[in-house]
Amino acid sequence: MVLTGGVTGSEPVHQAVRWTRSHEPPSPPATHHGPHGEATGGLSELGVTIFGCGPDEALLFRELAPGFGVLPTITDAAASGSTIELASGNRCISVTHTAPVTRPVLLALRDVGVRYLSARSVGYDHIDVHCAQSLGISVETVAYSPDSVADYTLMLILMVVRGAKSTVSRAQVHDYRLNDGRGKELRDLTVGVVGTGRIGAAVLDRLRGFGGRVLAYDRWPKAAAEYVSLDELLRQSDVVTLHTPLDADTHHLLDRRRIEQMRRGAFVVNTGRGALLDTEALLSALESGQLGGAALDVLEGEEGVFYSDCRGRATETLRLSRLQQLPNVLITPHTAYYTDHALKDVVDHTLVNCRRFEGRAAWTG
Question: How many secondary structure helices (H) and strands (E) does the chain include?
Fold first, then answer.
């Protein structure tokens, strides 16, 4: 088993843990084809259990699954000891990014016959992939439109450098005076893009149209960009936007030391993973005025808060409350990916990946 694509500073099209062969086997004799022309083969209908499925995803799975010869078992519950039986008899399952898939869960999945796990996300930091590997469970993520996150990232950059949170908040209470602080134009700023995989590269493409200087950092540079070291990017950038996967090397990639290297008054944007940022160090820099603002679509400790209706409940963490009280901090609930196009991509590719795995498994016997 190998980690296909490697753990890099960018987002591969398919990050996966799976058995590999020197040559892909030919497709089995096809009696049916999916919506994209892929052969679903002369196989019996494939059962797939979809865990953590929201209502909008459920509609898409029910609509699209028959075209792939897939019979979905759909639940809004996460994969856990109490829900594992829903996967009984199905070799393939799909999970969302909002719930961890731990060793006990993987052991239970193995025991009911699961051999393939498709994560409906680009990242896999919520899955114990090494345990899955040892248990013979293949893990694969899905690719979806990078434009969804790239568009959202540009929106957040523009909002934070123009002080949009304060402007909108004041207008909502009928205070239409100009803000005390003027906004900035992107053509006058240097923007540093950390991680230049599919999403980071799409952000680079969008930034070029604004006319400012754009710097990039990636452990394996491959996009057309002006690459510099991470320390140099932090020293020179007025805006830093994060697009790396979360792993042992990138946990708290922006820690206290690196945040202190940044230009005074610089902005941080994070649409990657919350733990790329040391939240306590970020708060200190924001509260002291070292940083000019932040726009965060992801947050450490977001689990159990984001995607929940927390009105009237004391569920907010102290760090989240402190961040939300700052007039120069925008927080959105991990929604950058959430577009019609991207959600359909996720469902499509989940079904394709499960069918392909089943085809490989049938070929290898």
Answer: 11, 14
How many angstroms separate the CA atoms of 200 and 195, rounded? 6
- 316, 307, 311: which is closest to 334 by C-alpha? 307
C-alpha closest to that of 69 among 113, 111, 35, 118: 35
12 lies in which domain range?
A: 2-145+341-364
Report the CATH number that the domain containing residue 95 is assigned in CATH: 3.40.50.720
In a shared domain, residues 20 and 38: yes
Q: Which residues of 211-233 are buried (b: 16+ CB within 10 A; e: fewer)?
A: ebbbbbbbeeeebebebbebeeb
On whether both 164 and 310 belong to a single domain, the answer is yes
Write out pLDDT tens, residues 175-220.
999 977 899 999 999 999 999 999 999 999 999 999 999 999 999 9
Residue-wise pLDDT tens digits, 264-305: 999 999 999 999 999 999 999 999 999 999 999 999 988 888
Q: Is 36 a catalytic site residue?
A: no
b/e per residue 305-315 (b: at least 16 CB within 10 A): bbeeeeeeeee
Q: Which residue has the tokens 């708290």?
A: 252
Regarding whether 156 and 137 lie in a shared domain, the answer is no
Question: Which is the catalytic residue, given 18, 126, 334, 356?
Answer: 334
Helix, strand, or coil here: 311?
A: coil
Q: Is the pTM of this model over 0.90?
A: no
Same domain flag for 139 and 234:
no
Q: Looking at residue 194, what DSSP letter applies? A: E
The domain tally of the chain equals 2
Mark whether 164 and 103 lie in a shared domain: no
Does residue 87 share a domain with residue 182?
A: no
Is 336 part of any domain? no
In a domain, 357, yes or no: yes
Are both 55 and 105 inside the same structural domain?
Answer: yes
Helix (H) or strand (E) run with residue 59 in it: helix 55-64
Q: Catalytic: which of 198, 273, 355, 356? A: 273
The structure tokens listed for 182 are 């003027």
Q: Identify which of 228, 91, 209 has the alpha carbon closest to the alpha carbon of residue 150.
A: 209
Q: Annotated catalytic residue: which of 57, 140, 300, 302? A: 302
Q: Is 287 marked active-site? A: no
Catalytic-residue membership of 97: no
**CA distance linking residue 305 with residue 56, whole number of Å:** 20
